[in-house]
Amino acid sequence: xxxxxxxxxxxFAVAFSLGIIAxxxxxxxxxxxxxxxxxxxxxxxYGVYTLVAAQAAYVEVVAMCVxxxxxxxxxxxxxxxxIAPGTSxxxxxxxxxxxxxxxxxxxxxxxxxxxxxxxxxxxxxxxLFWASGCAVGITAGSLLPPDIVTxxxxxxxxxxxxxxxxxxxKDHHVxxxxxxxxVLSGLCAIVPVIGGWSSGMRTVVLTVVISAVAAWLKPIHTxxxxxx
Length: 228
Hints:
By secondary structure, the protein is mainly α. The chain is 75% helix and 0% strand.
């Protein structure tokens, strides 16, 4: 819990911005708390709240959340190698449910096998702050003046820029994918047929197609890919 507290403080600030977005989508503070408590993913929640605001179908909301959070499957697979043999299936599943980027980082860095209680404790304190931050953001969004709410909602876009800019500077292929995403997203909003789809469905389809093409054209090679 001591190591989870710094993560929790950072989570609260980011979740507050998500709460502003959730407030615009019409969620109440208890609804925001529960959704944040169980999703615990900034990109996933942003997609969910955006689709809720657009009154998208349930299947679109679920599909967006799954696509945005696919990376957690890889993290869980890596974390499984840090679990002691003989650990029950239930404890393994609970550890997987606790995985976020930061919780995974400290769990995978734990020397030796990672005790389930280590991951549980860090996830508990950070998740409570994350969910509370969203609830507070929703409450603030309904009380603050519209101009202040608009300004605060921009902080989330700043967080996304902070996520995508460093990889773009390190790898020009990521920059190409980002540019293609921007161009195709704009084109798909105005072309016939596809332009009639909901924004949520277009985002889901573009995310899957662009990432698949990028992985096919420029796969990331590992040592296991090299010939013996």
